[in-house]
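Notes to self after the Tuesday call (sharing in case useful).
The group wants a holo model before anyone commits to mutagenesis around the pocket. I volunteered. Ligand is thymidine-5'-phosphate. Logging inputs and output together so the record is complete.
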Amino acid sequence: MFEGGEGSGKSTQARLLAERWGAVLTFQPGATAIGAQLRQILLDPANADLEPRAEALLMAADRAQHVAETIRPALLRGRDVVCDRYIGSSLAYQGHARGLGVAEVAELSRFATENLQPDLVVLLEVSDDEATRRMAAVAPDRMEAAGRDFHQRVRDGYRMLAAHDLDRWVALDGEGPIDEVAERVRAVVEARLR
Ligand code: TMP
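Result:
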């Protein structure tokens, strides 16, 4: 699974890794037909009033649908799955940055996924300045518009999560040319999963 704040380059790296491994590439939120409707609600800037708890539950609902419809069936067919965001996003964004509590949000994701945990979580880290620069290039959705402090807390949350679960998480430098970052990812994945 790939995790990271906005502008961390994880979508590009998830795609490159999936291509190299012949894995199923997918993402959250929004990869199923039902999830796409949830994503619409979650990211629409018009929904500025969405409550943090409602946001957490909608993210969990997307995850439940996605696991049942896409991820578990792929694993049962013997496929590897590379997912652009998973439980770690809810822990960093809703649990830490929104202040709902990492343990509470983890429990919600356990319920949503029937405790389907990733083998490896790759956290791509970029500096605050680089993330801000990359985010400025796109029209912000509701989450991206949440402000500099919120996104700083997201990055802090990710750093804490990676530091507390060294068996599952690995933090990598996400700065530099795409192929150099891809090489860092390749080395880590081969060392940890082969
Ligand atoms: P994306 O832009 O990487 O597709 O992700 C959509 C946004 O949703 C992004 O701002 C991160 C956020 N998000 C959460 O807040 N919690 C979650 O559990 C997930 C999967 C995404």
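Two things stood out.
The CA atoms of residues 120 and 186 lie 13 Å apart.
The mean pLDDT is 95.
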